[in-house]
Design goal:
Strand content: under 5%
Order of helices and strands: EEHHHHHHHHHHHH
Strand order of the largest sheet: 1-2
Low-confidence stretches: none
Helix content: 55-70%
Distance between the termini: 85 Å
Number of helices: 12
């Protein structure tokens, strides 16, 4: 019924905005495997090609196979983690909207989906072995990744420091897989650089989680303070910068120009690290490192300049 106003006019009742339609089953299943996180594999796995003596067909096929296999493995890990964390996710302001935590995907459906992903992963690895793209022994990093994340889901994620080290180690395994599948050795300084950089990103995420979700969502946060995390962030950033310089300086990719390339590109590396620390400490960001880095124009501009310098140096190394 219309409500009379002081002027004698009647006003129509305010219509309620329509409630948003919940995502469909396909959209929820897609969200479970986190396609937005696949850029991690796209960035890290192909690094194994950097030390390749030549970019021939077998090397590229091996890198592509490693990329597909690790994408399937990481999708499986994300799904299993969501299954195990569904109760804690319901208490988180953002993660409570995930399909399993929100109740849109049942546990039985999620388990069946995980089994299908596991079978697809095994079939893909078997196909690469059968076609000669890679040997059976070349896939130990992905096996170690799945086993490590199973231990992580069972309890390591609740142990302070171990929780961040395990996540960072997963990126080193990505790098190792890309190297082995493309027929190249794993560069030690590059592996250390990947580990420390990813450790930096995970520490930034933990710092953000302390401010947003508190320790109830992630019990391992009880072993941290903001001051302790800030010290770890600075320490890890220094190690990442040193590892990068030493890798570029000694890399055969740049030939005799390695020391010069290290000097010319070090400012880009240092600026990128400093900018991330600024986003985490000053702007209170870092909850989603991938989104924070790719959405920040300053970081993207610096990365493009950095990539252009490295590409030019790589071409000089090939020609020289």
């Amino acid at each position: 019924m219309a409500t009379p106003t002081l002027t004698g006019r009647q006003t129509r009742p305010t219509a309620r905005p329509p409630s948003p339609r919940p995502p469909g089953l396909l959209a929820d299943l897609t969200a479970l495997v986190r396609p937005g996180q696949w850029t991690k594999n796209l960035v890290v796995v192909p690094l194994g090609l950097l030390g390749a003596p030549r970019l021939d067909g077998p090397a590229l096929a091996g890198a592509l196979a490693a990329l597909v296999v690790f994408t399937l493995a990481s999708a499986l890990v994300y799904l299993v983690n969501d299954l195990g964390d569904r109760d804690r996710d319901r208490r988180h302001p953002e993660k409570r909207h995930r399909p399993i935590a929100a109740g849109r995907i049942g546990v039985g459906t999620a388990v069946a989906f995980a089994a299908a992903l596991a079978l697809l992963l095994a079939a893909t690895v078997g196909a690469t072995v059968a076609t000669g793209v890679a040997g059976p022994a070349d896939w130990w990093p992905v096996a170690a990744y799945v086993a490590l994340n199973a231990a992580y889901s069972k309890g390591l994620k609740h142990v302070p420091l171990l929780d961040v080290f395990v996540v960072a180690l997963g990126f080193v395994l990505r790098l190792a897989q890309g190297c082995l599948a493309s027929g190249n050795p794993v560069p030690s300084w590059l592996a250390l650089g990947v580990f420390t950089l990813c450790l930096l990103l995970v520490l930034g995420k933990r710092r953000h989680e302390m401010a947003v979700g508190g320790v109830l969502h992630r019990p391992a946060l009880r072993g941290y303070t903001v001051g302790f995390l800030d010290q770890l962030l600075g320490f890890t950033a220094v190690l990442a910068a040193v590892s990068y310089v030493l890798h570029v300086q000694s890399s055969a990719v740049f030939g005799p120009h390695g020391p010069l390339v290290a000097v010319l590109t070090a400012p880009c590396a240092l600026f990128g690290l400093a900018r991330y620390l600024q986003l985490v400490v000053v702007d209170a960001g870092g909850g989603n490192p991938t989104r924070a880095l790719f959405a920040d124009r300053t970081t993207v501009t610096n990365a493009l300049l950095w990539a252009a310098l490295l590409a030019a140096a790589w071409l000089l190394g090939r020609l020289g």
